[in-house]
Amino acid sequence: MSGLSIMLVDDHPVVREGYRRLLERRPGYRVVAEAENAADAYRAYRETSPDVVIMDLSLPGPGGLEAVRHIRQWDRNARILVFTMHQAAAFALKAFEAGAAGYVTKSSAPDELMGAVEQVARGRRAMSGDIAREIAAERLSNRASPLEDLAPREIEILRMVASGMPAEDIAEALCLSLKTVQNYHYQIKAKLGARTDAHLVWLAIAAGLLRNDEPG
């Protein structure tokens, strides 16, 4: 496939540079924009309208789920490939629910990433093999994730709460009122049956919402 414009969203400049070099080895592939957080990703998408967005989930402030949801609200045809360290089936399913077209983990081989980019660019779904196996195993075992009943925005707020962000900062980052964030917080606790914030943190870690290098 030739003549493909791509936007990279990752908060590590060195990582973005590595993926830019990998992608631009393919004839016709061009990285036309880069962003390091959800707000910049939304602005850059509106300015450049890339064919494919490659989106990390672990971003400072609002994460990739929020960025996916926001971009897809503005452009229902946006083709977004999540590329992340998160290997939990629940997180992958929520990314698809938010509007992602593909999900590849960073432990995947470069060829797997390139194949997923091409599939997403063609309007198809794509998953790395490890995520496909995780989802299949969860479905076959009939063990529902405790996060299954949460909407993508609730997942994002849970991640932000579990990472230690104060409610005021969450409200500012998501352009919500403090009261709305507090209502979300209460609803998330009720849905998960959590009595305390410490229990919420435990559930977020168990579900793979926080990486080992993130606070919690």
TrEMBL record:
SMART domains for this protein: HTH_LUXR (SM00421), REC (SM00448)
Start and end residues of each Response regulatory domain: 5-121
SUPFAM superfamilies: C-terminal effector domain of the bipartite response regulators, CheY-like
Matches recorded under Pfam families: GerE (PF00196), Response_reg (PF00072)
HTH luxR-type domain ranges (all copies): 143-208
This protein's record includes keyword DNA-binding: yes
Keywords of this entry: DNA-binding, Phosphoprotein
GO molecular function list: DNA binding
Residues the record lists as 4-aspartylphosphate modifications: 56
Matching InterPro entries: CheY-like_superfamily, NreC/VraR/RcsB-like_REC, Sig_transdc_resp-reg_C-effctor, Sig_transdc_resp-reg_receiver, Tscrpt_reg_LuxR_C, WalR-like
Keyword Transmembrane helix: no
The protein's name: DNA-binding NarL/FixJ family response regulator
